[in-house]
Structures are given as C-alpha cells and as structure tokens.
UniProtKB/TrEMBL annotation:
GO terms for cellular component: plasma membrane. It holds the Pfam family TauE. InterPro entries: TM_pro_TauE-like, TSUP/Inactive_protease-like. This is Probable membrane transporter protein. PANTHER family: MEMBRANE TRANSPORTER PROTEIN MJ0441-RELATED, MEMBRANE TRANSPORTER PROTEIN YJNA-RELATED. It is found in: Cell membrane; Membrane. Keywords: Cell membrane, Membrane, Transmembrane, Transmembrane helix. The chain crosses the membrane at residues 7-37, 43-62, 74-94, 114-131, 151-179, 185-205, 217-236. It comes from Spirosoma validum.
Length: 265
C-alpha cells in the first residue's frame, strides 16, 4: 500500500468522525478522496460516496433512534420529497447528462469536470457555513410548529444536490431543521444523520442498475468511516462541535481551492 492510499484510508476515519460530531460535513470529503487520492472516475466516485455516507450515517442514526433524538414526523416531511429527487437524479439525470456537457468552439467542458466544479462550489459554501458557525438557535419555527411545506420544498432541493454530487448535505439540513422545524440543535443533528443515511442509500439504489462496484475496496473504506462515526459520537459528549467545525471549515475551503486549481491547471 502506498503512502497516498494510506492517507486515503485514514481520511475515511475523519469522514465518519465529522459526521458523528456535527451531523454532516464529513461527506463532502469523500468524493475528493476517491478522485484525487484513489484516482477513481468522478461519476463512480459519487456513487461510492453515497454508499459510504449512507452506511456511516445509518450506523450513527441507530444510536440516535435508540435514544429517541430523531423527530420522525419532521423526517418524513423533509425526506420523502428528498428521496424522490435524489433517486431520479441518480437514476436518470446524472447518467444522461451529455458528455462533454458544454462544447463551444475550442472550449470543451467534460461532464466529470463539471461535476467536480459544482462539487467544489458546494464545498466553498459549506466551508463558509462551518467557519461562520451558521447554526441558528431559532428561526421561523421558533414557536415549535414545523413549517412542513417549506421543509418539503427544501427536501427536494437537498435531494437534487445529494444525487448530483454524492454528498449528504448535512451542512444544509441541520440549519433547515432548526429554522423550519424548531428543533433544538442536538435533535436537528440526530435527525440530519438519519435523513442523510436514507437519502444516500436511495441515491445509491438509483446507481446500481448501471454501475460496477469494487466491493473489495468499498467495504474496507466504509468500515473505517463507520469506526470514525463512533469516535465522533463519543467526542460529542466532551467537545463543542462548533469549535471543531470552524477548523474543519478552513480545511474544506483549502481542499475546494485545490480541486479548482487542479482542474484548471
């Protein structure tokens, strides 16, 4: 095993660690790890990301469900529309995007590059939210009455994002659950992990019809990520997640800028 691959496997633990601590965020590292460390094609990397993120989040959500931290009614309102958009985007949108995506004169933009540019943009947005700790204590649902229509519409948007780039979208889901469902932050994190788990698996199911998977690679990587979420959930009892998220946000920003420079140069 090369040093580069060893770094990739260690990074798998970090992915689970961040999901366990913050209810999201770690998943946006999986695609860059697969593409730049393990040199996996972009579209296949998003498929692998969905499996890793789904498996890791599902294991973490079992603990949250056992302790009754997950709001199932809010989960249904947000997740059902999200399931539809993530499945349709993986089953039809991503496979049928033209390649190259844009071709004008001498300018050619391959589909894989377009997905990576979009992914890097999402990473920058996520990094900004983490650095600023954009996690409101209350919002339009401060009265405790969830805004189910708004939750459903946002679920559609997050599902499309998840399906397109293979990230769970937890950095978006947690603030939405606080703002529009009136959930305390700790319950928003728990509910987010559960939504991410099912969302990712639904997207993965949309891929298996037209994708060949390397299980000998995928399962060990996923196992390491799952070990990371246990560490993250344990540390969440002692460490303020927002402090760690700020540092992680700067790291995500650096990775995003590296991705953009790698694609341009």
């Amino acid at each position: 095993m090369s040093i580069e691959e060893l770094f990739g496997y260690v990074s798998a633990i970090v992915v689970g660690l961040v999901i366990g601590l913050a209810g999201g965020g770690g998943s946006i590292l999986t695609v860059p790890i697969f593409v730049y460390v393990f040199h996996i094609p972009t579209v296949l990397a998003t498929t692998y990301s969905l499996f890793v993120v789904g498996s890791t989040s599902f294991v973490g959500s079992i603990n949250h469900l056992w302790k009754r931290r997950v709001n199932l009614r809010v989960t249904l309102a947000f997740a059902l529309p999200s399931f539809v958009s993530v499945y349709l985007s993986r089953r039809f949108l991503v496979p049928f995007l033209p390649d190259p995506l844009v071709q004008t004169g001498t300018f050619v933009l391959p589909k894989s590059d377009a997905i990576l540019y979009f992914f890097a943009l999402v990473m920058i947005i996520a990094a900004r939210a983490m650095i600023r700790s954009d996690r409101p204590e209350q919002g339009e649902a401060a009265d405790g009455r969830p805004r189910y229509r708004s939750l459903s519409l946002d679920g559609l948007a997050v599902g499309l994002l998840t399906g397109t780039i293979g990230a769970g979208g937890g950095f978006l889901i947690v603030p939405m659950l606080v703002l529009m469902a009136g959930l305390p932050v700790h319950r928003a994190v728990a509910t987010s992990v559960f939504i991410i788990a099912i969302n990712s698996f639904v997207g993965f199911l949309g891929d298996i019809h037209h994708t060949t998977l390397d299980w000998n690679f995928l399962l060990p990587f996923t196992g390491l990520s799952i070990s990371g979420i246990f560490v993250g959930m344990y540390l969440a009892n002692f460490v303020a997640p927002d402090k760690l998220k700020k540092g992680f946000g700067w790291f995500v920003l650096i990775v995003a800028l590296y991705m953009i420079s790698k694609e341009i140069l």
